Task: structure prediction
Amino acid sequence: MYTTPANNAFLTAIYVVMIPFIVWVFFHQKPERKAYLAIVICMLGMAVLTGVFSRGVSLHLGDLLTIISAGFYALQIVYFGMSATESSPWIIAFMLGITQGAFGLIYSLLFETQTYASVHWVAGLVPVVILGIVSSFGAQTLQLVGQRYTDPTPAGLLLMTESMFGSVFSVALGFEPMTWDLVIGGSLIVLALVIMQVGFRRLWLFKKNACDQGLAKSTGIACCNASIWVIGADKRSMITTC
Result:
């Protein structure tokens, strides 16, 4: 109501930036160095995807509310990943569903009763079931289960693909044309996920061990075999080069 869809989508993604610092402050776990690079690339991709570079960002009341909401969402992701893993995700999902449904009903009875007469209940039932049960409760339950097996920072990056998939399905269903913003922005978000998920140091160690043990040929790994001798003032050493 008080902001634009592009601003809302972009500012909501700020939760990805907040997550590692919340973990650092409350749980004293310093983020991996590659997390900063992944977050920057992901935010850049989100900016391209939502057209921020072409339209710009002008802050309104709705933007402030969006940023506050992003902060609470970041806290929720951290809680799911750090504390809620000690409990059954099914119990937490059930309690969340009951709480959200109860408070949603209370809000509706307090502020929306005057609009009930204009609602087409038969036509609105299927969308409400899909949005409420499948897209909200179902997705939240899967998030709770999934976060038992991943850290909050990569979980936040994975959840950020929501906007990318929204755009992809919108194009696939014919609601909007394919654009370079979608291609470039989506590619940057996927690149950020790859950087965050792939253990480059472990890959390097695996390659080194495979070369040392003579397993390179069977595993298809290319090893560095060129070596040079370097003669110093006090000793002679061999350096392997690629």
Summary: The CA atoms of residues 176 and 223 lie 48 Å apart. The mean pLDDT is 78.
